[in-house]
Amino acid sequence: MALSGLDIFKKLPKTNCKKCNFPTCLAFAMQVATGKVEISLCPDVSAEAMAQIAEATAPPIRPITIGTGENELKIGEETVMFRHDKRFEHQPGIGVLVTDEMDDKTLQGLLERFNAVRFERVGVMMRPELIAIKSLSGNPEKFKALVKRVVDETSALLVLMSDSPEILKAGLSLCSEKRPLLCGATKDNLDHVAQIAKENNTPVVAKGGDLDELADLTARLSSSSVKDILLYPTTTSLKSRFEQEVMARRLPLKNNLRALGFPTILFPSDWTEDRDKEVLIAATFVAKYAGIIILSNLEPHYLYPLFTERMNIYTDPQRPMTMEEKVYEFSNPDKDSPLLVTGNFALTYFLVTGEVESSKVGCWLAIQNTDGLSVLTAWAAGKFNAESVAKFIKASKIAENLSHRNIVIPGYVAEISGELEEELGSNWKVIVGPREASSIPSFLKQWQKS
Ligand code: SF4
C-alpha cells in the first residue's frame, strides 16, 4: 500500500540531523513519498522501516538496467497508463536479432548496419541500442564465437538468447562485465538460469505462454533473489499479446500486482516475415508498452519513423524541449559578426540555426532561457523582455568578443527594442530582425554588405 509523506515521517528517526542533505526529516519524507529520492539516503532509519518504506514507495513497474556505465539502457519505472496522465519514463530499447546459423554475409551486413544507422532530430541522436544473439545451433562454441564477434565489432548492449543454461553461461563468459540480458528463464530451466543470473548480477527474461505462467516465474525468480526481470509472453496470437501488454501495465499500476511489475520484451518477427508488417507491429508496441523491441533487420527507412514515434511518445508533455542558455557560434564568427538573440525552445533554436547555417554568414546566436517557451509566448509571460535579455547578454560577456554593440532581436518582440537599449546601456543599438526564420539568410547577407 502506498505511504504518504506523514506515514514515512513517522518511521524516520526524527533527529533532523541533515545527513540525507535535507533540512528536516519531514522534508525528506515528503520527497521520498513522491519517489524523487530513495529512503536509503537516511543512514539512521531502522532496517525494518527501510524495508517497509522501500517496498511501499517502489515504482509499480521495476526499473531495469541493461549494460553498465555510459553504455546502459534503463527501462521500466513506469507509473501511468497514458502519457497525458504524467509522462512515460524510459523509452523502449530497439535492437536487431542475429543467430549463430546466419551466413557470414548476412551477419556482417547487420553488424555494419547497427554501427552505421544514426539519425539526429532536434539535437537528439537516435540509434538502435541492442543486439540480441540467439543460439539456433545448440552448440555452445558456435554461440561463443558469435558473441565474441558482436562484442568485438560493436558497442551494442547484449541480449543472450537460448533456453539452454549451458549455452547462456558460455556466452556470458565473454561479456558478463557488460551486464547483458539473459533470455530466458522458462518453467523447465528456471532454477539453473536464476543461479547464473545471480552469480553474474544480470537481468533475466521470464519466458512463458501467458500472464499467469509469467507471474509464477517471476515469483520463483524473486524468491531466488533475482529481482531484475523482463516479461516475454510467448503467445502465438498478436491480439492476445496486445491484451497481455496492456494487462501487464494495468495490473501492477491499478491492482498492485507486483508479480507482473516488470518491463516486457517483444520480437515482432514472432508474428510475421513481412518487413512492413513487422515494423507496424513494432510501432504498435512502442505506444503500448514494450520495454525492448528486437527487429529482424535495421533498414533506415523503417527505423526513422519508429525512432521518431518513440521520441515523440517518450517526450515529457509537461516539459518543452529546451536548449542550454548560452551564446552559440556559427560559421566561425569574428568580432564583426552579428549577434542575434532568441528563446531556448528547441524548435525555435533548430528553425533559427537551420537558416543561420544555410546563410553561411558567421554569427553569434544568444539563446536565453525562456523555460522552453517560444519567443512570443515567453514575451507574454514576462520571460523574454528587455530586462531578461539585457541581464543574460551582460552575464554572457559576449561584448568582449565584438567590435560593435549591435544586437538583433526577433521581429515579434520589436516593442522591447527601446527599453532593451536602455537596459543594455547607451552604446548598444537594438536592431529588429525578421519575424520568420525563413527571412534570416537574406537579413544576414544584408548585414554582411553593410
Ligand atoms: S538523515 Fe534521516 S534522521 Fe537525519 S534528517 Fe535525514 S531523514 Fe532525518
List keywords for this structure.
single chain, 450 residues, alpha/beta, 3-methyladenine DNA Glycosylase II, Chain A, domain 3, TIM Barrel, Rossmann fold, eight-stranded parallel β-sheet, three-stranded mixed β-sheet, 17 strands, binds iron/sulfur cluster
Could you explain how this protein is built, in words?
With 450 residues, the protein is an alpha/beta fold. The protein folds into 3 domains: 5-57, 3-methyladenine DNA Glycosylase II, Chain A, domain 3 (Orthogonal Bundle), CATH 1.10.15.40; 64-313, TIM Barrel; 326-449, Rossmann fold, CATH 3.40.50.11600. Helix content is 40%, strand content 17%. It is built from 16 helices and 17 strands. Helix 1 (5-11) packs across helix 2, helix 5 packs parallel to helix 6 (165-172) and helix 10 runs parallel beside helix 11. It is globular.
Distance between the termini: 70 Å
Q: Quote the beta fraction.
A: 15-25%
* Count of strand segments: 17
Q: What does the main sheet amount to?
A: 8 strands, parallel
The whole-angstrom Rg is: 27 Å
Order of strands across the biggest sheet?
A: 10-9-8-7-6-3-12-11
Going by CATH, the homologous superfamily of the largest domain would be: Dihydropteroate synthase-like
Residue windows where pLDDT falls under 50 for at least 5 positions: none
Mean pLDDT: 94
Examine the secondary-structure arrangement and name the CATH architecture of the largest domain: Alpha-Beta Barrel
CATH topology of the largest domain: TIM Barrel
What are the bound molecules? iron/sulfur cluster
Q: Quick one: CATH class of the largest domain? A: Alpha Beta
Question: Can you tell me the overall shape?
Answer: globular
- Total number of domains: 3
